[in-house]
């Protein structure tokens, strides 16, 4: 085998064993963090909107009936906030689980590829 062929073979093996899996993992991680940031920004926006709506309601209180309505609105807002927090936590958990499963699959595929590469190299 010539030096050029050996170098090319080594480069292909390096790319197959290290570069391609690293690129795949980087792409997966980027996708995960993009989805996570979008979920966090969406949640922050929803929480801010809810807080601002409550502040506006308090500013509009003019009498006892207005105070009663605001207090009832506070209870409803607290319930909605609790439901939103639960849904957001579940969404983030689902993202994490999906990322974990896909990461494990990438590792398994990389190990299979490395094992196959080692077997083919040993057979020669």
Q: What general form does the structure show? A: rod-shaped
- Topology order in helix (H) and strand (E) letters: HH
- According to DSSP, the number of beta strands is 0
Name the structural class.
mainly alpha
Spans of at least 5 consecutive residues with low confidence: none
Number of helices: 2
Largest sheet: none
Mean pLDDT: 89
N- to C-terminal distance: 12 Å
**% residues in beta strands:** under 5%
Helical amount among residues, as a percent range? over 70%
Give the C-alpha Rg.
27 Å
Question: Summarize this, please?
Answer:
By secondary structure, the chain is mostly helical. It has helices at residues 3-59, 64-123. Helix content is 94%, strand content 0%.
């Amino acid at each position: 085998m010539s030096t050029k062929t050996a170098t090319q073979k080594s480069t292909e093996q390096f790319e197959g064993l290290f570069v391609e899996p690293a690129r795949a993992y980087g792409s997966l991680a980027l996708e995960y963090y993009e989805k996570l940031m979008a979920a966090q920004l969406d949640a922050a926006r929803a929480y801010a909107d809810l807080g601002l709506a409550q502040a506006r309601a308090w500013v509009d209180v003019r009498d006892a009936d207005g105070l009663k309505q605001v207090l009832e609105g506070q209870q409803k807002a607290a319930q909605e906030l609790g439901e939103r927090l639960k849904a957001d936590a579940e969404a983030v958990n689902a993202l994490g689980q999906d990322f974990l499963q896909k990461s494990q699959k990438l590792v398994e595929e990389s190990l299979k590829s490395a094992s196959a590469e080692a077997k083919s190299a040993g057979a020669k």
